[in-house]
Amino acid sequence: MANSKLKLLYFEDRGRAEVSRIILAAAGKEYEDVRFSFEDWPKFKPETPYGQAPALSVDGVVYAQTLAINGFLAREFGFHGQDNLETFKIDEIAQLWEDFFTPAINVLFYSEDERAKEAGIKKIREESAPRTLTFLEGILAKNGTGYYVSDRLTLIDILVFEGVNGGTCSQFLDASEYPLIQKNFELVRANERIASYMATRKDSQW
């Protein structure tokens, strides 16, 4: 992958592509960061396999699906499991996160009924978000290294870091009462390449 040409296609916002961008930043990998407005999306949509973004072009071949892209980049650049069980654990926690993230996104952006949207947001704030944070805090406590898996930076640390740091669903995730999540956040932020990227990345509404 060192010499592969990568092109990441997504909207101007952070959204579902930001974890991939942070992985690439942490890896020090140069890539083409193609961003487009919602108005320009129809021009790029035909380039994607399933008419969805994000998409990742690897040496001219385009792949899709957020979990698959993140997993691929994490494996290629050393942020995934070093054995099958570590990989299993990382995939497990990534799915746990997705179980929170996807319903939250659906409530925020796809609720047509205002009452249903308000009820959904209330449920996320009072139930889904605390439950997810409690699970994550417990995983950190059990692992005991400051990281979610093993004793090093992996996909999960980056995933949660972005989630509580201005990501699309960060408005629901108050980690102030979760000291291990806060400690993990600081470990990720201390990564020199990630810190450099965070200092220069574009502002985004989501």
UniProtKB/TrEMBL annotation:
Gene3D superfamilies: 1.20.1050.10, Glutaredoxin. It comes from the Eukaryota. Residues 4-81 form the GST N-terminal domain. It holds the Pfam family GST_N. InterPro entries: Glutathione-S-Trfase_C-like, Glutathione-S-Trfase_C_sf, Glutathione_S-Trfase, Glutathione_S-Trfase_N, GST_C, GST_superfamily, Thioredoxin-like_sf. Residues 83-206 form the GST C-terminal domain. One of its GO terms (biological process) is glutathione metabolic process. One of its GO terms (molecular function) is glutathione transferase activity. This is Glutathione S-transferase 4. It comes from Biomphalaria pfeifferi.
